[in-house]
Amino acid sequence: MEPIHFFTDLQGRDWGIAPMSWGMIVKIRSRFRGVDFSKIVEKDDRTFERLAMEPELLVNVLWCTCEAQAEELGVSGEEFGESLGGDVLDQAALALERAAIDFFPPRVRRTLTKLVEKRNQAMDLAMDQLIETVDGPETNQAIDRLVSGAKTSFINTLESLGESVPTPTP
User: Fold this and answer.
1) Integer Cα distance of 126 and 3 in angstroms
2) Confidence (pLDDT) at 150
3) Is residue 62 one of the residues assigned to a domain?
4) Structural contact between residues 40 and 100, judged by C-beta atoms closer than 8 angstroms
5) Around Cβ 86, how many Cβ atoms within 10 Å?
6) Which of 35, 55, 128, 137 is the most exposed place for a label (fewest CB within 10 A)?
7) Residues lower than pLDDT 70 in the chain
8) Which of 45, 30, 79 is nearest to 59 (CA)?
9) How far apart are CA 76 and CA 67, in angstroms?
10) DSSP-H helix ranges across the chain
11) What is the pLDDT of residue 17?
């Protein structure tokens, strides 16, 4: 089957991932415990989330799908892995996700595509909210408390050793 989902690695090489076949699903499932693209239709499946949180696993699964192309290009597994990161890894993950969804019949594909879109929206919103929390005053106050506590602890340690505590100059 011809690849229809593409990504470009950090070396500028184009990689294509064909829609998943049953053979590829079995190959991935046998190599990577808990990664079973045939189960992404199940309510509690977390395959995509797991791949997003475990970059090493994602790269290994991508290698499994691109291994034949790599052989043709003379690219080793190590070279392949070194050429993935950041935005490229995100593009590769999206190509893999689409290829997995394409395994299913059109009716199921439509539903899965919509679910993935909604999941991505929810993840973006969660990240935005996390950034707001990190940038918020509560975080700065917590940092101030940690610094003050560390400073007090340091001063107490010096004093217990009989050392004089330098007075900061303005």
Assistant:
1) 33
2) 86
3) yes
4) yes
5) 8
6) 137
7) 1-3, 163, 165-170
8) 79
9) 9
10) 22-31, 47-53, 55-73, 77-82, 86-101, 106-135, 137-160
11) 94
Q: How far is 118 from 11, CA to CA, in rounded Å?
A: 32
What's the pLDDT score for residue 1? 59
Residue ranges of E strands in 84-152: none
Single-letter amino acid, residue 132? E
> Whose structure tokens read 């290994």?
60
User: What is the domain range of residue 17?
Assistant: 5-104
Residue 19 covered by a domain: yes
The confidence score (pLDDT) of residue 61 equals: 97
Quickly count: other Cβ atoms within 10 Å of residue 156's Cβ: 11
List, in sequence order, every residue forming a beta bridge with 35; answer none if it has no partner: none
- State residue 169's pLDDT score: 67
CA contacts within 13 A on the Cβ side of 87: 4
70: in domain: yes
Q: In the prediction, which pLDDT does 95 show?
A: 95
Q: What is the pLDDT of residue 3?
A: 59
**pTM for the model:** 0.74
pLDDT value of position 155: 81
| Under 8 Å between Cβ of 168 and 155 | no
How many Cα atoms are found within 13 Å in the side-chain-facing hemisphere of 37? 26
Q: How many domains does the chain divide into?
A: 1
